[in-house]
TrEMBL record:
It catalyses: UDP-alpha-D-glucose + 2 NAD(+) + H2O = UDP-alpha-D-glucuronate + 2 NADH + 3 H(+). The keyword Oxidoreductase applies. It is an enzyme of class 1 (oxidoreductase). It comes from Sphaerochaeta pleomorpha (strain ATCC BAA-1885 / DSM 22778 / Grapes). GO terms for biological process: polysaccharide biosynthetic process; UDP-glucuronate biosynthetic process. Substrate binds at K204, F249, L250, Q251, A252, G253, G257, K320. Keywords: NAD, Oxidoreductase. NAD(+) binds at D30, K35, T86, T121, K263, R327. This is UDP-glucose 6-dehydrogenase.
Length: 430
């Protein structure tokens, strides 16, 4: 089929390359000229495993194209997927201005009947508004329907998640919309759950916020474990055997980050409030996460007399391993606190270093290896679960650091092994 994708971020680009991979003809539109030029040359502006290989394959097979010219890209597409950002606003609500711009551009451009598919995460009822807005603004005499198709991929495993999704949720109000979406997804051979648009929109928040809740629950328990002498890792091990609970997302740590959980929890809380309802569970997940982000810093403040002039090793900047995305990363909440107190920071991240340099003007040094970062450090903070960090031998902390004092926000090491190696080691809930 002839598909167009609006937005070449984590969601739009991954959808574009995967649709081309299964044989659709895809045009990806972005307003960022530099990004489009980079993509045309086969280089991915974001890091995701296999993304660049799929990108090159799509370009070589002439099934995948990139443009800033939205008019020609939308004009005769059979389906247009909207994958632009819906960032958090200061009141917690989702900012729909990018979605609205694309809707207007579609209305001005389409010359054939088409299905508009909202992949961006949007508050319940947005699809109705997008459909009405497009219908009201159409220039040509064509029929445009809107369907919801929330995306469930996780950064770090985005291409794999798109190709092997647990399910595809489609929110449709007509047989035609359902049949177009079923045809698009047929080559993926994945379970399709067809529901009404509002239920599809809600499913995305329901799933993300449930995962956020699970993480915050474990972090809340982890803090209690420390007070009562239990080990959250052992507790989680025991819980994981229970099929009603499941074994994933039981990892205690320094809190969730990224572009989705923080904003999607707040957006659902906001939506509930708008309807006069207090969504207490999600509110609690947000509150726990906010304090969890700085739990290690607070612990370290109790141990250190000052950070002024202290050589600090920061291991990990990205919000999780496998991505170069820094959005809402716990590291970003801790680095300013340390700098404010005069810390002399050296930071390591295998892929997010460039993004950090570009986006933030932190007065700190970057280092290409864990060993170099630890060299001479007086305290170390671990913020991301990168393999390169996890695979560092406990003895290396002892050998390289001036004082082997480690605060681990990802529970990457066995406390007994760290102790045996002579490292003073603090982690979460143990
Ligand atoms: P992103 O910020 O990485 O990318 C958005 C892209 O849209 C940018 O490249 C931007 O230049 C482009 N854009 C903005 N206006 C445009 C326009 N008028 N026309 C064409 N392109 C335009 O965003 P993302 O992380 O891919 O997220 C997109 C949506 O998907 C959000 O609603 C998000 O909540 C949701 N989502 C994200 C993830 C994730 O892991 N990142 C997972 C599931 C769902």
């Amino acid at each position: 089929m002839n598909l167009t994708i609006a937005g070449t971020g984590y969601v739009g680009l991954v959808a574009g390359v995967c649709f081309a991979h299964v044989g659709h003809t895809v045009t990806c539109v972005d307003i960022d000229q530099k990004k489009v030029e980079l993509l045309r040359s086969g280089v991915s502006p974001i890091y995701e495993e296999n993304l660049e290989a799929f990108l090159k394959e799509g370009i070589a097979s002439d099934l995948l194209h990139f443009t800033t010219d939205y008019r020609s890209a939308y004009a005769s597409a059979e389906a247009i997927f909207i994958g632009v950002g819906t960032p958090e606003q200061s009141d917690g609500s989702a900012n729909l201005k990018y979605v609205a711009t694309v809707a207007r551009q579609i209305a001005e451009s389409v010359t054939h009947d088409c299905l508009v598919v909202v992949k961006s995460t949007v508050p319940v009822g947005t699809n109705d508004k997008v459909e009405q807005f497009i219908k009201d603004s159409l220039i040509n005499d064509v029929c445009v329907e809107v369907a919801s198709n929330p995306e469930f991929l996780a950064q770090g495993t985005a291409v794999h998640d798109m190709m092997h999704a647990a399910r595809i949720i489609i929110g449709v109000e007509s047989k035609n919309a359902e049949s177009v979406l079923r045809s698009i997804y047929a080559p993926f051979n994945l379970p399709i759950v067809a529901v009404k648009r509002r239920s599809a929109e809600m499913s995305k928040y329901a799933a993300n916020d449930f995962l956020a809740l699970k993480i915050s629950y474990m972090n809340d328990l982890a803090n209690l474990c420390e007070l009562v002498g239990a080990d959250i890792e052992d507790v989680a091990k025991g819980m994981a055997y229970d099929e009603r609970i499941g074994s994933r997302f039981l990892q205690a740590g320094i809190g969730y980050g990224g572009s989705c959980f923080p904003k999607d929890t707040k957006a659902l809380e906001y939506l509930a409030k708008q309807h006069g309802y207090n969504l207490k569970t999600v509110g609690a997940a947000v509150a726990v996460n906010t304090s969890q982000r700085t739990v290690l810093f607070k612990k370290a403040c109790n141990r250190m007399i000052t950070f002024n002039g202290i050589k600090v090793a920061v291991l990990g900047l990205a919000f999780k391993a496998g991505t170069d995305d820094l959005r809402e990363s716990p590291a970003l909440y801790n680095i300013p606190l340390l700098l404010e107190q005069g810390a002399d920071i050296t930071a390591f991240d295998p892929v997010a270093e460039e993004n950090c340099k570009k986006q933030f003007n932190f007065s700190m040094t970057y280092s290409p290896t864990v060993a170099e970062t630890l060299q001479g450090a007086q305290i170390c903070f671990i913020f991301t679960d990168w393999k390169e960090i996890k695979e560092t031998a406990p003895e290396e902390f002892k050998r390289l650091m001036r004082t082997p004092l480690v605060y681990d926000g990802r529970n990457l090491f066995d406390p007994a092994a760290m102790k045996a190696a002579g490292v003073e080691y603090y982690s979460i809930g143990r």
